[in-house]
Amino acid sequence: MVERAELGYNGVNPLDRRHTLAISHDLRAIFAGLLATSIWGGMYVVSKVALDVIPPFGLLTLRLVLGAGVLLGVALLQRQPAPAWGQVWRLLGVGLLGYGVSLGFQFVGTKLSTAANGALVTSATPAFVLLFGAWLLREPITRGKALALALASVGVVVVIDPRGVRFDGALFWGNLALVAAALTWALYSVLVRLVTRQVDVLWTSLLAFLGGLLLTVPAAAWEGFALGWGAVTWPVVAGVFYLGVVSTALAMYLWNYAFARLEAGVAAMTFFAQPVVGVGLGAWLLHEPLGGGFFLGGMLILVGVWLATREA
């Protein structure tokens, strides 16, 4: 009789049902993070076409405007209540850090350094997330998280082939900007987990885009006067819409969703999908050589993400 009383009306323990739902939500969040970083990994070809015509901050501004427009439309359709004014300013500040400062550092770093350096340095982002998560969110750094991070980090190094990385003096400022980009993106991601405890992910993402525009609009205006734009063709327009709707509105929302639902150190592990997808698409679309290191590194990353999933 005691055992039966502990079960629900259908004979299922409510605690078991709750545990199953929690696992389902965690797996959904991990999938969201992996999908977001996979989308970013596939941005290279489209971004290259657009950046041949539109300067970096101009393109970033267009992406944020389109992304904000899409999410505003969704918020209005769902009749999501807007956050209080006190929270709005906080969210704008978080967005200024993530989409203004961090992506700005990334553009500068990519311009002054090399693509290989960028891939290697920014792969340190999950490690920075783990540290910021322990500091700001009091999330413990467990052995499982540390092992998962170590395996995935080694996997990234194997995938991108560090022989192409250069750290000579001529690239110092570019490499420094890339380190700053990794640090600030990690801090942004942890702050997203903090603010989404009180604000819906949709409004968090939307207002963060608007916060980023506070920096990118003046930078884009200066850039436009100094550099000008090339001839905007229909393929460029299509590329900009893809970057704004898919790579910004969808991917950034999914990234924020992952951090809202998972511990920061676990969500950050999904970042490692980006270089794998980027290298894989480079081999498929651009016929770049693909060595055995790609598959070995990919396996190490998969094992690392699997270990992180167990932590979740």
Compact summary:
Helices cover 79% and strands 0% of the residues.
Which helices and strands, and how do they pair?
Layout (H helix, E strand, L loop, with lengths): L1 H4 L8 H28 L2 H8 L4 H23 L6 H28 L2 H8 L2 H12 L6 H18 L11 H24 L5 H27 L6 H28 L2 H4 L5 H13 L6 H20 L1
Helix pairs in contact: 2-11, 2-13, 3-11, 4-5, 4-10, 4-11, 5-9, 5-10, 6-9, 7-9, 8-14, 9-11, 10-11, 13-14
Question: What can you see in these coordinates?
Answer:
This protein is mostly helical. It has one domain (2-311). Helix content is 79%, strand content 0%. It contains 14 helices and no strands. The chain has helices at residues 2-5, 14-41, 44-51, 56-78, 85-112, 115-122, 125-136, 143-160, 172-195, 201-227, 234-261, 264-267, 273-285, 292-311. Helix 2 (14-41) packs across helix 13, helix 5 (85-112) packs across helix 10 (201-227) and helix 13 (273-285) runs antiparallel to helix 14 (292-311). The two termini are 35 Å apart. The model is unreliable at 1-7 (pLDDT under 50).
